[in-house]
Amino acid sequence: MNASIVTGQQARFVSRNNKSHKAGTSGLAPGYLQANLIILPSRYANDFRNLCARNPVPCPLIAESATKGCDNAVISHIDKVRGDEILGEGCDIRRDAPHYMVYKDSKLEKSHCNDVVAEWTDDHVAFLIGCSYSFETALAADDVEVVPFGGVSGRDVRGVDEAV
What is the pLDDT of residues 16-60, one digit of tens each? Predict the structure, then answer.
């Protein structure tokens, strides 16, 4: 964990300025909500929104683009939380994640891109869905050890180590 990154705004700034968190974002900005970003052509937006509504545990929908093509404002799906409280001032969805994976026709075209400015169109809709990193701090505070499972292509997938 990089102890100098304590806010979501700092994490976005570091990502945007190509000082990426190559080891992942787990542990960054403790106490702030982390999310997974999915960007789709607008023709798939209703289907994805419905998927999230029908599967709120694995796909909790936090927010989505305020309008089609909007890259800097979202509509919140969390009660009593405004969209500007989710993204923060000056956020740019196309540049503020640590890295992006670009798929076209279900095939990976680009891996670990620093931004998706060239790919972004006025037809895109961004969705933010919940991420387990958001509650790791709470688990750690209760002395629950959260360990990475590195067995799947070295990915940083978290889980709780239990002895049954």
Answer: 786 655 556 666 777 777 888 999 999 999 999 999 999 998 889
Written as one letter, the residue type at 61 is: L
Reduced to 3 states (helix: H, G, I; strand: E, B; else coil), residue 116 is: coil
Asked if 96 and 109 touch (Cβ cutoff 8 Å), the reply is no
Q: What is the pTM of this model?
A: 0.78
For residue 105, is pLDDT > 80?
yes
Go through the domains of the chain in sequence order and give each one's CATH number.
8-153 (3.40.1640.10)
And the tokens for 89? 């001032």
Give Cβ neighbours of residue 5 (< 8 Å, ≥ 6 apart): 11, 14, 21, 28, 29
pLDDT at position 1: 46
Say if residue 7 is exposed, middle or buried (CB neighbours under 10 Å; 0-12, 13-18, 19+): middle
How far is the CA of 52 from the CAs of 8, 47, 63, 130, 141, in angstroms?
24, 9, 11, 10, 29
Report the SS3 class of residue 46: helix
* pLDDT given for residue 141 in this prediction: 66
Count other C-beta atoms under 10 Å from residue 74's C-beta.
24
